[in-house]
Amino acid sequence: MPFSALSAALDAARTDITVFFRDDDAGWADEQLTTLLDIFEEQRAPIDLAVIPQALRRELALDLCVRRARSRSRLGLHQHGYSHTNHETAGRKCEFGPARDAEQQLKDVKAGQMRLRALLGRVDPIFTPPWNRCTQATVSALRAASLQVLSRDHGAAALQLEGLQHLPVHVDWCKWTSTPAPDWGALDQQLALAVERADGSEPLGVMLHHAAMVDADWQALRELLGLLHDHSSVRLSLMNELIVAQRCIAAQQSAIPI
Ligand SMILES: [Zn+2]
Q: Are 211 and 197 contacting, i.e. CB atoms less than 8 angstroms apart?
């Protein structure tokens, strides 16, 4: 049982845990993406795809639209940067980093938004920056483009969100399973730790990168989804459902009692 630590953490949790899966880089590696989506369909589990606008072609867009229609609200689609290009000449890779000012960032956000809408129709108002990195100028660009949610890593540097919601991921699957050798025990421990830390206070986000996943990942992913699906303390959710729920709670809390 590769997820024994996670299973024990879930059994010990005092409150229910909401879990979402965000898979990045849709538009690349279609074959692995198809495998990933088939597994989530088989397991009847929800999955959010962060789609690279410039990499999305018509054939994949059509497949995603058909899958979304038959998924009974178990497939979410949102924007992952524009072209997934690193614009920094030094330091860590960023598409929406300090090398680009607010105007340049807004241009790319809007171009990506228009392309996704043209190819996919409905797109969730969520933005995942490539490499999980962006700047304060990105926040302004997202607001100007009427996007509502920023999704990065939970440890990312703090930004003034100016009304945007933040829906971070907590566990990077591929950090523990890619070369030189997968460490399933470490992944299990990270998931267990994330459950203990979340303890019902915020949704637990798991980040996947289908392009880096191989047969052993698919088998482990099936087992993880089976465990989460069957556990009475777990609720699997789409990111957009969480946003709607949070907004509704905020509206109720600010409403005048009647
Ligand atoms: Zn990416």
A: no
Peptide bond into 203 cis (omega under 30): no
3-state percent breakdown (helix, strand, coil) of the chain, nearest 5: 50, 15, 35
Q: What is the pLDDT of residues 62-111, one digit of tens each?
A: 999 999 999 988 999 999 999 999 999 998 999 999 999 999 999 999 99
- Architecture label for domain 4-254: Alpha-Beta Barrel (3.20)
pTM assigned to the model: 0.94
Distance 24 CA to ligand 1 centre (A): 5
Q: How far is the CA of 15 from the centre of ligand 1 (A)?
A: 32
Sign of the alpha-carbon dihedral angle for 34, 51, 245, 248: negative
Residue ranges covered by each domain of the chain: 4-254
How far does residue 230's CA lie from ligand 1's centre (Å)? 30
Is the sign of the CA dihedral 110, 116, 117, 118 positive or negative? positive
Burial of 222 (0-12, 13-18, 19+ CB in 10 A): middle
Alpha carbons within 13 A on the beta-carbon side of 64: 27
Between the CA of 247 and the centroid of ligand 1 the distance, in Å, is: 27
Cα 95 to averaged position of ligand 1 atoms, centre (Å) = 10
